Amino acid sequence: MREPQVAYVGMTHLGLCSAAAAASRGFNTLGFDLDPALVGRLDAGRLPIVEPGLDELIAGNRSRLAFSSDAARLSDCQVIYVSPDVPTNEHGQSDLSGIERLLAVALSAAAANAVIVVLSQVPPGFTRNRQRDGVLLLYQVETLVFGRAVERAVSPERIIVGWDDPSRALPDALRAFLEAFECPILPMRFESAELAKISINCCLVASVSVANTLAEICERVGADWSEIAPALKLDRRIGSHAYLTPGLGIGGGNLERDLATVDELSRANGTEAGVIRSFVANSSHRKNWAIRVLHERLLADVTDVRIGVLGLAYKEDTASIKNSPSIALLRLLEPWPVQVYDPAVEATVPLPARASRTATALEAARGADALAIMTPWAEFRKLEAGTLRSAMRGRLVLDPFRVLDRRAVLAAGLDHRTLGVN
Fold first, then answer.
1. Across-strand partners of 161?
2. Strand, helix or coil for residue 139
3. What backbone phi and psi angles, to 5 degrees, belong to 6?
4. What residue segments make up the domains of the chain, in order of their start?
5. What is 309-368 written as a DSSP string?
6. Into which CATH architecture does domain 288-417 fall?
7. How far apart are CA 411 and CA 232, in angstroms?
8. Do 27 and 180 meet the contact criterion of CB atoms below 8 Å apart?
9. Which of 140-149, 189-198, 205-214, 250-259 has the lowest mean pLDDT?
10. Is 373 helix (H, G, I), strand (E, B) or coil?
11. What's the CA gap between 201 and 112, in Å, rounded?
12. Domain 6-188 falls in which CATH fold?
């Protein structure tokens, strides 16, 4: 059959990265959004997100990638993905109004033989409850990871597809498109596919929670988690790709949403999900690691304190501050002057009254009694311990992700505090 034309409806992080990946696989691809101003920015090459490699991927495949706010153009596409990011509130609950609106547009504009696929993350039951006679509406699990979105969109590990009868062959146009990605395709019923993504994230959170719990014990008993983690990865029951890096709780919104969804499903169906609630409690506790260390090592004894904070994003290689430990720390540091630097988060992001932005990482450290490296940006790894020691007024360096060379920092006379070791 002729290669299908593919469309992605909703040009936020998920849709934009997915559209670029489809074009890179050789398909004529339409990126649709209701916002003409956003489409204009995309046409001009001004991307609304920070994602390593995305600018290059789009530029290199522009001949196959078009952007439009004209819904009529969707009628030319055989496969239409509904792909907006689904925002969450402070409780991890999803706002589905955006995807409902775009799904309605896709259903109205699609040709009769088109396959429509919900790509955004939705709760179990969403896709089945929106079936219509004469419409092929399926669900596909998204694999978006901020900072690695291009890699995962272009070369997915596997593709999970949900539809009403997984024993049947997938529709021809969708099958031809998915097979181009050269990875296993796993058809399953709607609810299984919708719950699969949540299950994957729950397993990830379990690994993170175990690492955080044991790393904190390491900090108290003289062990070093960086020595233990490699031994765990050599255990076949755990594996070399296990996520065992301790962190400051879970951030970004997606993992929190999945924990909230499982908790809600458990309460509604009378199942036991205490382990999920313990993951949430563990995350909240670990997110406050930095402020606890600051109080223990500095704030309890010194009144005239200035603090430097490096990083606002919840993780490196993204401008997202959703549930960022750094933003949470700044709120707790409101009584003290804070100097802040982040290479990607826009200056329009509001900060507490006594926090000010600096132009460089070193300026944020200058004159500070303590420096907290809250996002492991690659450029922070270039900071030299001796230069930091000369710039800072105090000696305390909070480096939860071990961005700096610990031996060099200690040799420079700095008090280096990191996750998983005392």
1. 140, 187
2. strand
3. -120, 145
4. 6-188, 198-285, 288-417
5. EE--SSSTT----TT-HHHHHHHHTTTS-EEEE-SSS-TTS---TTEEE-SSHHHHHTT-
6. 3-Layer(aba) Sandwich (3.40)
7. 30
8. yes
9. 250-259
10. strand
11. 35
12. Rossmann fold (3.40.50)
Q: How far apart are CA 60 and CA 45, in angstroms?
A: 12
Structure confidence by residue, pLDDT tens digits, 334-378: 999 999 999 999 888 899 999 999 999 999 999 999 999 999 999
Burial class (CB in 10 A: 0-12, 13-18, 19+), 346: exposed
Residue with tokens 């507490």: 352
Burial class (CB in 10 A: 0-12, 13-18, 19+), 281: exposed
Decide: 74 and 9 in contact? Cβ < 8 Å: yes
Determine the CATH number of domain 198-285: 1.10.1040.10
- Distance from C-alpha of 130 to C-alpha of 118, rounded to nearest angstrom: 10
pLDDT digits (tens, 9 = 90+) for 383-414: 999 999 999 999 999 999 999 999 999 999 99
Q: What is the pLDDT of residues 228-241, one digit of tens each?
A: 999 999 999 998 98
Quick one: pLDDT at residue 2?
A: 62
The contacts found for 414-417 with CB under 8 angstroms, 24 or more apart, are 414/385, 414/388, 414/389, 415/297, 417/293, 417/297
Alpha-carbon torsion 175, 181, 184, 187, what sign?
A: negative
Confidence of residue 198 (pLDDT cuts 50, 70, 90): very high
Cβ atoms within 10 A of the Cβ of 303, count? 6
Predicted TM-score (pTM) of the model is 0.85
Give one DSSP letter per residue of 14-30, joined into a string. HHHHHHHHHHHTT--EE
Torsion of CA 98, 101, 105, 108, to 10 degrees: 150
Q: Are 6-188 and 288-417 in the same CATH fold?
A: yes
